[in-house]
Amino acid sequence: MMDGRVKAIRGSLNSKGYCNTIILSYAVKYASNFYGPFRNVVGAKLSSGPSSKKTYQMDYRNTREALKAVEINIQEGADMVVVKPAMTYLDIISNVKNNFNIPVFAYQTSGEYSMIKYAALNGCMDFDQAILESIQCIKRAGATAIFTYAAIKLARFLAANHSI
């Protein structure tokens, strides 16, 4: 999330009497190629905003920046945080979970989902088993909750197989 945004949101909510409203901050959002499929669908080209998402998204090579951003967002009033993308940042999810006493949401992006989907469509892996494995690994890393494009398919698979 951009610097100071949580503080501004918290201040505005508090001033209007919404002191107990929970803020979920996109504290850890990396400048990632894994957003590609979503951006292509909605037509969100880099030219539609800043010349580069890197001006406000994190460098994927940096761990300390993520932890510092979470710390600042909590100080500004965030009640929980998102790590996005999830699968390639399991270490970050784990670090956030181990260093802060707040819920950590993981966001499995369109690119992460698409990798599994395309591999399954091309006979390289079983979609249901691969998506289940990816979600279980994200959970094992410490995610409190997970956003995924596979939610409905995964729920149907789990219900049909009587496993959770």
Automatic annotation (TrEMBL):
The keyword 4Fe-4S does not apply. Pathway: Porphyrin-containing compound metabolism; protoporphyrin-IX biosynthesis; coproporphyrinogen-III from 5-aminolevulinate: step 1/4. InterPro entries: ALAD, ALAD_AS, Aldolase_TIM. Its EC number is 4.2.1.24. Signal peptide: none annotated. GO terms for biological process: protoporphyrinogen IX biosynthetic process. It comes from the Bacteria. Keywords: Heme biosynthesis, Lyase, Porphyrin biosynthesis. Transmembrane segments: none annotated. One of its GO terms (cellular component) is cytosol. One of its GO terms (molecular function) is zinc ion binding. It catalyses: 2 5-aminolevulinate = porphobilinogen + 2 H2O + H(+). It is an enzyme of class 4 (lyase). PANTHER family: DELTA-AMINOLEVULINIC ACID DEHYDRATASE. Homooctamer. Belongs to the ALAD family. This is Delta-aminolevulinic acid dehydratase.
